[in-house]
């Protein structure tokens, strides 16, 4: 498509006005190369990306360990263990350390979402090699 054949309608023009000079040049170049819709979507995604904040991924699992319960909640950087038995929490911590997870205990207050009596929170520092049981 030639730049002279390019037709910018009202919706695209509103976006075009919101762009700075460099982005306008990029918009026109992309519109000539890949089309107006694709160029508009590219610029809109650039305008919106600083406004969107990243939502942490949270994963929760609940285990039955004998007569006790253990709720394991993980984010990308933290591990929360909630149980009605400290012994179960300590066994789980030893297991993940033996599996190579490097963690450090942090202080955390219990919330209404923590159903069980004991809560322990850990910062996940990294992942190493598992320990050998021999």
Give me the secondary-structure topology.
Elements: H1 10-18, H2 21-34, H3 36-48, E1 59-65, E2 68-74, E3 78-83, H4 86-98, E4 101-106, E5 118-127
Helix pairs in contact: 2-3
Structural summary, described in words:
By secondary structure, this protein is α+β, with helices and mostly antiparallel strands. It has two domains: 3-48, no CATH class; 59-127. The chain contains four helices and five strands; from the N terminus they run H-H-H-E-E-E-H-E-E. Strands 1-2-3-5-4 form a five-stranded antiparallel beta sheet, with helices on one face. The chain starts with 9 loop residues before the first helix and ends in a 7-residue tail after the last strand. The mean pLDDT is 84.
């Amino acid at each position: 498509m030639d730049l002279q054949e390019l037709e910018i309608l009202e919706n695209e023009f509103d976006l075009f006005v919101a762009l700075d000079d460099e982005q306008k040049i990029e918009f026109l170049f992309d519109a000539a190369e890949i089309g107006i819709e694709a160029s508009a979507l590219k610029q809109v995604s650039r305008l919106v990306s600083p406004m969107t904040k990243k939502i942490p991924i949270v994963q929760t699992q609940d285990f039955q360990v004998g007569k006790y319960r253990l709720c394991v909640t993980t984010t990308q950087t933290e591990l929360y263990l909630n149980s009605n038995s400290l012994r179960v929490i300590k066994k789980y911590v030893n297991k993940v350390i033996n599996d190579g997870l490097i963690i450090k205990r942090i202080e955390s207050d219990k919330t209404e979402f923590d159903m069980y009596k004991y809560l322990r929170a850990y910062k996940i520092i990294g992942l190493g090699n598992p320990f050998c049981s021999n």
